[in-house]
Amino acid sequence: MRILSISLLVATAAFAQEAPKKTDKLAPYYPTPESVVEKMLQFGGLAKGERMFDLGSGDGRIVIMAAEKFGAVATGVEMDVDLWKQSASRIRSLGLEKNAKIINGDVLKQDYSSANMLTVYLLPSSNDKVRPLLEKQLKKGTRIVSHDFEFAGWKPEKTETIDDDGEGRSHTLYLYRR
Ligand SMILES: C[S@@+](CC[C@H](N)C(=O)[O-])C[C@H]1O[C@@H](n2cnc3c(N)ncnc32)[C@H](O)[C@@H]1O
What we know:
alpha/beta
């Protein structure tokens, strides 16, 4: 009996160690209006051939515009399987596979060290969680454009408010440079 309970305990501990950690949902899906997407990419000065990442890419609209209109090499990271499938299929149908892709994964578990620019539309508490990773990984000069929410402890280089997105909503953009 004792041997049985010890083996059970060992098996439970091994399972707990191997069980994948749950992905931390950093924000609900709330897409940036297309007009604001373009503004974000201009605001960050995205140039042809640069590498950009969108952290929590939703339906992929930022990644798609970055590749299609700005000629960037764009990667999105999205945890939601349906949004990932939808965005990946739109990328295929537009023939943008060479310059655009979506990783179905966790924003907090990626490598952003190759980035020239990042776009972020999460929440203030999520920016707090992402910030240490970016401070560790980003090379000097990488630009970060955050939609609506600041990164506490970082000083924005530029801030701009779009008073009306056509639907009566205002949006604030923050540009940071590491
Ligand atoms: C506010 S939406 C922004 C979507 C897109 N970036 C845009 O601006 O249109 C946030 C997105 O982040 C995704 N998300 C939240 N937590 C995540 C995580 N830990 N890893 C990957 N994606 C995540 C959500 O599923 C959602 O699609």
